[in-house]
Amino acid sequence: MESQTHTQPKKKQWKGDPNAILSARAIHKTYKLGRLAVPVLHGVNLDVQKGEWVTILGASGSGKSTFLHLLGGLDRPDRHVRSDQQRRPVSAPSVKFEGRELTKMVARQLDHYRANDVGFVFQFYHLLPELSVIQNVAVGAMIKHGRIGYHMNRKSIIDRATMLLDRFGLSHRLKHRPTELSGGERQRVAIARALINEPSLLLADEPTGNLDAKTGGSILDSIFELRQDTGLTLVMVTHDERIAERSDRVIRLHDGRIVED
Amino acid sequence: MYQALLTKKYLTRKVMPLLAMVAVMLSVATILITWSVMGGFLKNLVNSGRTLVGDVVIVWPNVGFAHYDELIVMLEADQDITAATPTIETFGLAQLPDDRIELISIKGVDAKSYSDVTGFADTMWWKPLDKPTVKDHAGDDIRLMPEYKAIFEQIHANGLSMTRPHPKTGVIEPAGVLGIEVTGLNQRTKWGGYYPLNTNRALPDGSVEIVESFMPRDGSIGLTILALDSSGRPIDPVTRTIPIANEFQSGLYEVDQGTIFVPLEILQKMLRLNEASKVELVKDNDDPFPTEFDPATGQFVPKMKEIVGIDPARVTTVLVRGADGIALDKLQDRVRMIYNDFADEYAGQVPTGFQMERQIKTWEDLNRTMISAVEKETLMVLFIFGIVSMTTVFLVLAIFWSMATEKTKDIGVLRALGASTMGIAWLWVRYGASIGLVGAAAGTTLGYLVVSNINQIHDWMGENLNIVIWDPRQYYFIEIPSDVDPVKAVIIFVIGVLTCVLGALIPALHSALLDPVKALRFE
Questions:
Q1: Contact A144 B418 (CB under 8 A)
Q2: Is A77 on the interface with B (CB under 8 A)?
Q3: Which of A87, A86, A88, A114 is closest to A100 using CA atoms?
Q4: Best interface-test mutation with A: which of B9, B413, B521, B523 has the largest number of A CBs within 10 A?
Q5: Tens digit of pLDDT for each residue in B245-299?
Q6: What are the pLDDT digits (tens) for B155-198?
Q7: Contact A142 B1 (CB under 8 A)
Q8: Complex ipTM, two decimals?
Q9: Are B242 and B221 in contact, with CB atoms under 8 Å apart?
Q10: Taking CA atoms, what residue in B is nearest to A199?
Q11: Beta bridge partners of B310
C-alpha cells in the first residue's frame, strides 16, 4: 500500500532519502496561546537512517520537543501556516516511518505505531507513581498486547522486563516504587519501559537534562551500548553539546528551522 | 490490562476514591433504608387493611340481598373457597361513655364465621398475654398480670362470642366489639399498649360523675341508626344500647377509631333487614268492607292486611376467603360465576348477576385508595431522596475530575506508550464502575444491616441519646416497619453503580480526548 503511494505521480516531488527509516518533510507547527499564534516549526526536513543516532540540538523553545512529538505520532504537523493575520496552505507535510505515512494515519493506526515501533524517553521520566518498577516497564507491553495477549505472553514480557532492568543494574529494585529511586535509576526504568516492546526507533527528549553530569553520562553509556547491541535507531533532543559529540549526526534547530545538519 | 492494574492501584492508594465510595455507600444505604421502611409501612398497612375484609367481598349496599345463607352454601361448596360469612355494613351515631356523640361505622357480623373468614379473632385486644410485646421491656402491660388472667380470659371469650354477662343479673346478652381508639379513653403507652383511663361525665344538676371507661367490664355504647325500607327509603331512626364485650385493634387507625362490630341479628333488626312477614292491604272486589275475627276482642274487625308470604333476612355483604395459594383474580372470577348461578336460581328475589364488577371486589379494590396513597407517598419520598442522591453523581464527577486532572501527565505517558482514547476512557469508566461496585455493595450491606436492626438502633438512640423518632404514642405501629425486598436491593445496587459510572463518564471523556502533547506538558 505504502509502496504504491511512492509510485504515484504526485509523490514524485518527494526529495527525501528513500532508504531512510524515518523521514520528515515540510513540517510546520504553530501553537495558539489564547489569540496569539506562536509558530514553533517552519518547514523542517529530516531523514534518519536505520541504526543511526541523530541528535537534535537547540536552545529552549527552539521547537525540538515539538518536532520529536511529531516524529513519534503524538501530534500532527500543520497543513496551513497560521500567523496572527492570515492562514495560508503549505506544501503537504509528511512524516514517514518505514515508508508508512504518519500524517495520513487515523488515530488507531497512530496508537499502534506508538505501541509497536516507537519508544519514548522523557526528561522527567514520567513513571507512573502507583506502579512498581517492573510494572512501569511492563505497562507498555500491556498496552500493546491487550488483556488476553498480555496473559498469553505474560512470562516472556516479565522475563524481558527483568532482563532490561537487570541490564540497567536495577534487578534489585523490581518491586520498588519510583519515589524510592534516584533520578538516574528512574531514567533507566523509563528507558527500559521505552524498550519493552522492542521498538525500532527510540525518541529521547533530553534524557539527561534532569541528571547530574556523572549520572547523565552513565545513562548515555547505557543507551550507547544498547544501540550497539540492537541496532536501534535513536533520535535524541538535547541542548547539551557533550551529548551531541557521541551521536552519529547532529542537527541544530534554531527558531523552528534547521540551521545545521 | 493496564486499566485493571491502574484501577487496582488507584483504588488502594488514594483517599479520593475512598471519599467517592463513601458517598455512593451512604447514598445507596439511604435509599435502601427509606424504601424498605416505606415498603414495610405499606406492607403493614395492607396487611392490616386485609385483616377484617377477607379476600373477596360481594356487596349490595343499603337494602342488601336475601337468601345469603344459600349463597354461602354454594360458595363453600367450591374447592377454591375456604369459608364465607354474611355481614351488614352501615353508619350510625355512637353515644360514648362521656356522652360524646361520634359518627361510627357499624358492622353486623356472625362472630364465628366472621373469624373463619377474617383475622377478627386475632384483633381482640383484651386477652391474657404470656410474654410482653416487643417494646414493653419493663413488662408494664396489664394483660401480663397474673391476677387479671382469669378476667382477661373471660373478656377474650366474650369478644370471640360477642356476648357478655349482664353486670347485675349475669344473664348472657349479645354484645359488640369496639375499636380500641373509638372512645379515646384508652391511653396509648410509650411501648405501644393501652391503659384504660377514667373520665368525667357532666350531670344535669351541675355535678360531675367519674365514669370508669374499661369498656369490656360494664361499658356500653348507644347506637343510633337510620333504618331503610326494602326500596332504600329511610324510615325512623332506631336507637339501642350495645354492651361492649371486648375491644379490637386491626392496625388501621381509621378503622380502630371509628368502627364497632355488633351481632348480625341485632343489626338486621335495627335496620329491618331481618326475616319478616310479607303483608298486603286487602282488596276484594266482591266485598268492599271485608272483616276478620279478632281473638283478643272476640269480635269481627275490618280486615286491613293479609300475610302473603315471608320476606327473608338480608345482608349487605358476603365476605369470602379463598383457598390457600389461589390467585386473587381467579378467586374473584370464581365468586362471580357462583353468584351468577345464585342469581339465576333466585331470579326475581336477589339482585341480578349482570354487571357484577362493582359488586364483587377484592380486598385490594377495597383498600385501593389507601394503598395507592401510601404507594404515591413512597414514590414521592423516593423521588426526593433520588434527587438528593443525584448529588452523588456530581460528587463523583468532582472527585473524578480532580483525579483525572491530577493524572493528566500519566494520561500523556500512556498515550505515548500507545494507549488509545477509548482505552483511556475505559480506564476511568472502569475505575468509576469499581468504586460504584464497592460503594454500592457496602451501601447495600449497610442499608440491610440498618433496616434489619432499625428498631434496636432506634431503642439504643432513645436510651442513650434521648432521641425517639418513632414514638408508639404518636405512630400507630409499635415498631418501625421495615421490609428489605431483594429486588429493591438489587435495583438500588445497580443504580448506585450506574451513578458512579455516570459521574466518571465526563472526566473519562475529558481524559480520553486530551491532546497527549498537552497532557505531557501539563504542570
A1: yes
A2: no
A3: A114
A4: B413
A5: 999 998 888 888 999 999 999 999 998 888 887 777 767 677 777 787 888 888 8
A6: 999 999 999 998 888 899 999 999 999 998 888 887 888 888 88
A7: yes
A8: 0.84
A9: yes
A10: B417
A11: B277
Grid coordinates given for A8: 504515484
- pLDDT tens per residue across span A169-188: 888 888 899 889 888 888 88
Best of B2, B15, B407 to substitute, by most chain A Cβ atoms within 10 angstroms, is B2
**pLDDT for B475 beyond 70:** no
Q: Could you tell me the three cell numbers for B145?
A: 398480670
**Where do we find the cell 493506526?**
A109
Residue among B6, B412, B420 minimizing CB distance to A111: B420
- How many contacts (CB atoms, under 8 Å) link A and B? 76
Tell me the three cell numbers of residue B16: 479520593
Residue B187 to residue B194: CA distance in whole angstroms: 5
Instruction: Extract the C-alpha cell encoding B231.
Output: 326500596
Q: Contact A146/B1, CB-based, under 8 Å?
A: yes
Pairwise CB contact (< 8 Å): A108 & B10: no
Distance of alpha carbon B144 from the chain centroid: 27
With a CB-CB cutoff of 8 Å, which residues 103-122 of chain A face chain B? Answer: 107-108, 111-116, 120, 122
- Asked if the Cβ–Cβ distance from B413 to A128 is below 8 Å, we say yes
Q: How far apart are CA B309 and CA B314, in angstroms?
A: 15
pLDDT at A81: 67
B78-107 pLDDT, tens digit each: 999 999 999 999 999 999 988 889 999 999
Model-level pTM? 0.69
Per-residue 3-state assignment (H helix, E strand, C coil) for B20-64: HHHHHHHHHHHHHHHHHHHHHHHHHHHHHHHHCCCCEEEECCCCC
Is B398 or B261 the better-scoring residue by pLDDT? B261
- Give the pLDDT of residue B299: 85
CB contacts of A114 in chain B (<8 Å) are 415-418
Residues forming beta bridges with residue A38, ordered by sequence position? A31
